[in-house]
Structure formats: structure tokens, C-alpha cells
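Can you give me the bound-state structure? Components:
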Amino acid sequence: MGNARHEAQAVTQHKLHGNGTSYTTYWFPHAVIVWALCMILESKLLKYNVATFAALLAWPHSTIILIPHLIFCDINHKFNHVMLGRLVRGAFAAAARQAQTCEHLIACRALVAELGGTSGQGDLLASFRHLSHDQPCLITADASRAGSHSHASTSHGIGAGAAYSCSEQPSSICQGLRLQQIRCYGYAPPKRRFQLPKPIAQLVRDKILEQRRSAQAPPPQPTLETRPMTDTSLRVGCIATKAGMTQEWDEHGVRVPLTVLWIDECQVVGVKTRERQGRTALMLGAGHKRQKCMSPSEAGFFLKAGLPFKKLVAEWPVSVDALLPVGTHITAAHFVAGQRVDVTGWTKYKGFQGVMKRWGFKGQPASHGVSLSHRAPGAIGNRQDPGKVWKGKKLPGCMGDERRTVHHCLVYKVDAARNLVYVKGQVPGPKGRSVYLRDSRLTNPRVRATWGLPFPTHIPTPEELEAAPAPGDVTAVPDPGKVSVWRNPADPYLMYVKETDYFPITWKKGE
Amino acid sequence: HCDYIRMIASRPVVRPFTAGRRSVAVQAKMSLHTLTQELSRSQLKKDLPSVTVGDSVKVGLAVQEGSGKTRTQTLDGIIIAEHGSDSSKTLTFRRVFQGVGVELVMPVHSPAVQKIEFVRRGRVRRAKLFYLRERIGKSARLKEVVGVRSEDVAAPKQV
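Here's the bound-state model for the whole set.
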């Protein structure tokens, strides 16, 4: 323990402060001067001891002056008795706090020594000395618990670790004090900030990283191979971008309105299994997004999987035999011309709309005395019973941007080289927005088997992979021969043709 | 996405005056539009004459007979309106048949419209000649524009 005392003495030489007031060191010479002046000017006619008050301004360090003054000058003054008692108690408390501070420092140093291990103790002490020279003692709650001497920093939990020397939060009192110091002296000592000693912080960080790295290994990936499709199997879908609408005429002369859906680098991004996540699903990602435009957690997900950054990630529930490994590309060849799909999209945003457009209300007549309510909803309730408006009452509001699915859409044309899927009809959403494609669930499994879908997905042959252009290649010309179109076996005009044969019409030439 | 980028690279250069006014999203939408246009270009007819509103034309329509044969029927009339562009371009064709006015909206690229033959050009100062519906006979005539030859109107032969 003698060693500890030596250490304590060595530390106190670096001007540790027992309480939150550091300004007193600067008041010390001033206090002496003021006391001396008051002693000189003091006269026996005065009732109170002016010197006492003057020295009190520089409490507590000026107790060094006050206590001998009070003892040797006019003990009979009743005021002096009270002040003397208070000053002595205060001085003892200050001394006790100083001692506690030294003990805390020693405990902290012991903790660092046991954690640091091989690093030289002399270095740590030197770093401590360096720290305490600039800033006062900094202690964690660990040290305080291990030391078991502290009484001051008990209210703070683990990791809170408030600095002992500034036990209360920076309050307006401290701020006012700083302002006062600046106003009076033109200077205020620097504010103390909490900071763990660098060796301890580094050790804690290393331990946490080590724990994270030793987590369990990822599960095995499913294999990529062609499997037979059963009645209960469910294929994965696709994320596509709505590129626009066109029209075409098929071989019977029937006009077919088409929506062009472009599949932009759709890849399997994650696999979900029943053991780990409670369901069998595949996560698909599509599009591109810059790393700086996404949050670090998102970016970390793609970096960990070794995939390019995707703009949109969505999940499809699949059957167990339709699982694919991470990184598999889903192309337009995944779909077959003539099959039926469900297309899910978010509808166009219409903004704040009235009741007639939003809910299809009929409004009121345009004339016959209707005043200012031609498109209004009219009544929205009953009377005293129920005496309220029901929740979910159809009223004006924001319309659009809702998720809607169009079922059983026909895939008219598939352009495998350009990754385009032409769907007959309309699809929710504006141009440029992403939609989700899925094999239609409204079909009979027997009918679905006749489509000839690639299961679990279209796996490109090595020749196709070589022939495909590189991802960034702009000059490659897509092969128009890879387009497959659905041919309607039945002629829809047949019945008209047959009917016109009943009444043969002759057209006059030149009319 | 190579096609997408190719579209952006190959579309006509936008003047600097307009480039700053359109946002990135609008430019992307326009690129998608041009992509869709180019994709449907293979389905368009290449030998269409450049016929406008006011022209008298002879239109050859495909008519299916009961036996399954397809025959071409020629009709004379005036083009009184045109709508749309590219694959969805339609012409409104009007003729008076046995005293009754008949209008026909023809998608120009449909296989049912087999031939459009230019006859003469009328001087019109409107884009839509719906006023002709109230006129019959001599008041429904259009003044001819002299000097327009059918060779000029027909589509240029592509080598």
C-alpha cells in the first residue's frame, strides 16, 4: 500500500481537482490580496468581519487563509464561530474528495494493467499522466465497481461512465459560470469532455469484433439444375420495369395492345428456408443503385453476398424444389409466350381527389337549386344514433399509389435477347416503375403443364453465355431471331366470316 | 440494360437549351418511350404514302369471304382526320355510299388496310374536316391543290 501512496502523491502533484470548480485556482492570489486589503481597512467599529466575507468569495481554496484568520482574530464574534465550523467541515470534505480521486485513479490503472497484459505498465501510467495533466481523472463504472471505494459515481450504469470530477450534467449553472469567467477575466478554462482512455476503448472494440466473427457459418446453397415440375411446385417470379405500351396485329388481323416489361438484371439475392426464417422464399433484386445512395446496412448486405448493388429487393414464396442459389439471373427466357401471369404494381398517383373520382359517387344535379354541392359527398352520417361518423367513411383524400394486381394476363411475346416480356393489356403503374411478375395462380395445373415452363428457371447453355454481351457492352446488337410470339390457334373472326356467307353482298365497282 | 443505354446514346442530341429544363426522371421516361418506339418499328409498314388530311384516296381493304379467301375491296373517299403516331396512327376516311355518309377509322398499319393510293390533294385550312358532315353534294367539294404528283406523295423506295 505504500506503493499506492507514492503513486497517489505522484498523481496529486498534477493538480487534480476534487470538485467541479476549477476557477478557484485562479482566484487564489486575488483572494489573498483582497483579504489583506480588508484587514488593513478593517476597523473595530464595524459589526461584521469584512475580511471574512472577502475571503469567502474565494472558497474553498482560501480556507487556508480563513481558518487561521478566524482562529486568531476575534473569536468572540458569534458569526465567526458559525463560519469557522462550516469552513472546517468544507475543508475536510474537499480533502476527502481529493483522496477518493487518487484512489479511483489507482483502480483504473489496475484495470488497464489487467486488460492490457503484455503492454508495458510504464506506458499506461505515462499515458495516464499525460491525460491527467491535460484533463482531470476519467473513470469508468467498471473501475468504480472493481475499486468498491467510490460513492460518487454510483448513479450511472455500465458504459455511462460519467467523469467523476464533473458529477452533474453540464447545467445552466456551469454555462453561466463560463460566461461569467469570460466576462470577468476574458478567459474560461476548457470544458472537460468524457473520453475513455484510448487503450481501454480499443480493447473493448476488438473483443466485440472477435465475438461477431466467431458466429455460425451460413447454410448451404441450393443447386442450380433442371428439375421436373409437379402440380404443387411454385416457381419464382421476376421484377420488371414498365417501359411503355404499343400495339400489334396478329396473323388473324386482330389488334393486340401490349405492355412492354423490361427485366433489368434480376438476380437471386437471398434464400429463405423453413428452418431459419420459417418460410421457403427467394429474395430477388433488380435495377442498379449507387452505394452512396443507400444506407450502410443495405450496402453491407450486398457486399457480404458478393452481388452488385440493386435498387429494389422483393421476396417470392416458392416451393422447396424451386429454390435457386444466390446470384442466379432471372431473364426473360424464364417466361414462355402464351402463358398467363399475375402482374403486381403500384398504381399511378392521382393526388388529393374528390369523392366522385375516388369512390365513384354520383354527386348532385347541375341545376334545380343545388347550391355549391354539385360534386360533394352529401350526408356522411345518420342522426343522434349513432351520433358519430363511422370509421372508414368514404371521403375525399389522396388517391393512387396503391398496390394492385392484374391477374391472368397473357404473355404475348418474349424477347429473350433483349430481356423484354410483352404482356397483353394494361399493367398498374406509370412508365418506369417496377412491377412484380408471377405465374398466374388462376390456372389449372394441367393447363400450366401444357405451357412448358422452364423449371426452376431457364438455365443458359454455355453457348448462350458466350454469345451474350458483357453487362456494360453498349454496342452489342440483340438477336431478333430469339423472339417467340404466341399464335392464336383459333381465328376470332371465323364466326363473322361464317355469318356473312348467309347473305352474300356484292359491292359495286367504283363506288 | 445495354439496350437502354444504347437508346440513350443513339437518341438525337438534345439542345442545351432544353437539357437543363427536364429532370432526370423525365429524361428516363422519354428514353423508355423512344425504346418502345424503336421496338415497334419492325411491325410498321414501310411503303405508306405520305397522305394527309384533305387528300382524296383509294383505300384497299381486306374482305374475308365465306370460303376463307381474302379479297381486296377498293373504296374512294376523303381523309378528314388523322390521330396518333407510329404504330397507333389512324386515318378517318369518309365516303358517301348510296346517299349515306360512311366514316371509317382505319389504323394505318393494320393488315386489314392493304393499299392506300393517292388521287388528289385538297386545299384545306383545318386539321379536322368535320364540317363536311353537314355538307352534301357540291358544297362538300374541296378545292384542288395544283401541282402535287402521286410520285411525290408515295413513300420513297428504300434500297
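A couple of observations. Chain A touches chain B at residues 241, 243-249, 253, 255, 260, 262, 264-265, 288, 418-420, 430-432, 469, 471-476, 478, 480, 493, 496-498, 500-501, 504, 507, 510-511 (CB under 8 Å). The first helix of chain A runs from residue 2 to 12.
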